Amino acid sequence: MVLATEQRTNRLLTLLSDHDYERLRPHFSVSRLDYRKVLYDARREIKNVYFPIDGVASLVLEMRNGVGVEVGTIGSEGMVGIPIVLGDRHAPSTVYVQVPGQALRMDARMFRQELKRSPTLHAVVLRYIHALFNQVAQSAACAHLHKVEQRCCRWLLMTRDRMPSDEFLLTQEFLGMMLGVRRPSVSLTMTDLQKAGLIEYSRGRVKILDRKRLQKRACECYKISKLEFDRLLGDSSTKPRDDKSRRLVSEIG
């Protein structure tokens, strides 16, 4: 499928120069991110990388007893397929879709070649890896230090940031996995937020009603992670793409 240059709604792709993006564009295809779709499996070769346009993918580690633990979240700010950037073809984790949407898909072998050809692309994805690592570290601290409601508000805000509207699919199973709590705790927390007029929640669909009050109830980790992504990836709307690309390359190199 031929893509228009204007369809650069993934944050990483907006940071590329027109020249770099035009070289990638013929190799992209639009992939529908259906709920529970597996983007790559643990210990199997990663055949494609994905740049989400909207929706949320979950990086999950599974224990021997089959229990899965969410260790990372990927949306329109990033990409699925980090091991390819780091020179590997496999990972001990699985990535699957938790909130439906769309993504731009590219063959992993082709992406590996483009990384070698483009210092800008390489610089941009390294910045993203740094930001993602910081997010994972922040989440680990958050799980030990903050209350369930604070963490739930944080995840709701993070998910909303990756979606085109205030309403989106978000199952209690996913929230429980992200928060590391059982479904009854998720249900109680969501009911309290709904009674407070911050959200509507029914049959796995969430609608954010009052973002400002939701942010006040969230822990500090939401703002810290957001500021870190902005620091590392910059504001994608304030400068021409070529200017931002040169700045990122110079700062990394």
Notes on the protein architecture:
The chain folds into two domains: 11-141, Sandwich (Jelly Rolls); 146-223, Arc Repressor Mutant, subunit A (Orthogonal Bundle), CATH 1.10.10.10. Helices cover 47% and strands 20% of the residues. It is built from eleven helices and ten strands. The strands form three sheets. A four-stranded antiparallel β-sheet has the order 2-6-4-5. Strands 1-7-3 form a three-stranded antiparallel β-sheet. A three-stranded antiparallel β-sheet has the order 8-10-9. The two termini are 34 Å apart.
Topology of helices and strands:
Layout: H1 11-14, H2 18-24, E1 29-33, E2 38-40, E3 48-52, E4 56-62, E5 68-74, H3 82-85, E6 94-99, E7 101-107, H4 108-117, H5 119-145, H6 148-161, E8 167-169, H7 172-179, H8 183-195, E9 199-202, E10 205-208, H9 211-217, H10 221-233, H11 241-252
Antiparallel strand pairs: 1-7, 2-6, 3-7, 4-5, 4-6, 8-10, 9-10
Helix pairs in contact: 5-10, 5-11, 6-9, 7-8
Quick description:
The chain is built from eleven helices and ten strands.
Label this structure with key terms:
four-stranded antiparallel β-sheet, Arc Repressor Mutant, subunit A, disordered N terminus, alpha+beta, single chain, Jelly Rolls, three-stranded antiparallel β-sheet, 253 residues, 2 domains
